[in-house]
Amino acid sequence: MFIAQAFKPENKFWKYLLGSVIVIGASFVGQIPWIIAIALEKLKSGRPMPVDEAAIMRFLDLNLTLFFVLLSFAVAMVALIVVVRKMHHQKFKEIVTSRPQVDWKRILSSFAIWGIFSAGMIVLAYYSEPDKYILQFDPVKFAILAVIAIVMIPIQTSVEELVFRGYLMQGFGLLAKNRWFPLVMTSVIFGGMHIFNPEVAKMGYIVSIYYIGTGLVLGIMTLMDEGTELALGFHAANNLTAALLVTADWTAFQTYSIFKDVSEPTAGFDIVLPVLVIYPLLLLLFSYMYKWTGWREKLTGKLYPLKQTPITEIVQSHEL
């Protein structure tokens, strides 16, 4: 079982707390080049230092800013690998999947399904409400954006998924000895991590429902599928389509995307629609594709060290 791979004699919950601090610290170290670049630009141009998030995100060229933002996740990924291998003495694969090898077909299938859906919804929104969007396609700037996004956004989303749905999911499972507690905790923390996004400041804390709900559905994918592959594909597709296709002055990613949303954002039913309708349908699709069974046990059941796992749970965990 994926989550039970944390049950090793040398593994303690305090290591997960310390490991999380190390990964977060590494991400801050990864922001140092961005700080230096901003300081150099200030000296060169004589412009005042930016004092709020919106000004910081637009102080440098948008492509350069995106690169620096994503660079911190690359540094965090290195730290996560070191923490898992050196502190926990685990194979890095063990926070990715319980399978003998990472199932890239699952990652690509999830990426394709959610990527096509997300891109379709963006194009549909543009043609159904054209007054809310402007076409800002710049071939050169977009080409540079595409290279940065395609290379580095999967690193960013993989860090988030492997920290929350892999590392912390296993850590909280080790602590609570059950499945529901890590599912709830990682979802709430994931939502809380996004509370400082500019979307929340613009539309209010109701947007947290979307972020927590997204964390919940990604956690369900991970527990039901005994690995993070589907969550990895989903998250990469979600962020990549957003970065390449549509931006707005109030979104976390400021990019030279194809479209720009110029409407005044409001928090309505569209915030809860994915959580209440679209996500459940996506889970049903994956359940059909991968023949998930034992929902209650896999989402709320107790956890045991692998050698103590009842034979019925071992059988269920391989019904994929």
Describe the structure.
This protein is mainly alpha-helical and about 325 residues long. It has one domain. It has 13 helices and 3 strands, in the order αααααβαααααββααα. A 3-stranded mixed β-sheet has the order 1-3-2. α4 runs parallel beside α6 (about 140-175) and α6 (about 140-175) runs antiparallel to α7. Residues about 310-320 have low confidence and may be disordered.
What's a concise summary of this model?
With 320 residues, this protein is mainly α.
Strand content: under 5%
* Total E-strand runs: 3
Overall pLDDT score: 92
Structural classification: mainly alpha
The number of helical runs is: 13
Terminal Cα separation, in Å?
Answer: 12 Å
Q: Domains counted in the coordinates: how many?
A: 1
Rg, please? 20 Å
Q: Give the helix proportion (percent range).
A: 55-70%
Taken from the alpha-carbon principal axes, the silhouette is globular
Please give the order of strands in the largest beta sheet.
Answer: 1-3-2
Poorly predicted runs: 311-320
Q: What is the N-to-C succession of helices and strands?
A: HHHHHEHHHHHEEHHH
For the sheet with most strands, the description reads: 3 strands, mixed
Layout of strands and helices, then pairs:
Layout: H1 13-29, H2 32-45, H3 53-59, H4 62-87, H5 104-128, E1 133-135, H6 139-176, H7 180-193, H8 198-203, H9 208-225, H10 229-245, E2 246-247, E3 259-261, H11 269-290, H12 295-300, H13 311-317
Parallel strand pairs: 2-3
Antiparallel strand pairs: 1-3
Helix pairs in contact: 1-4, 4-6, 5-10, 6-7, 6-10, 7-9, 9-10, 9-11
Domain CAAX prenyl protease 2/Lysostaphin resistance protein A-like: 143-240
GO molecular function: endopeptidase activity; metallopeptidase activity
Organism: Flavobacterium album
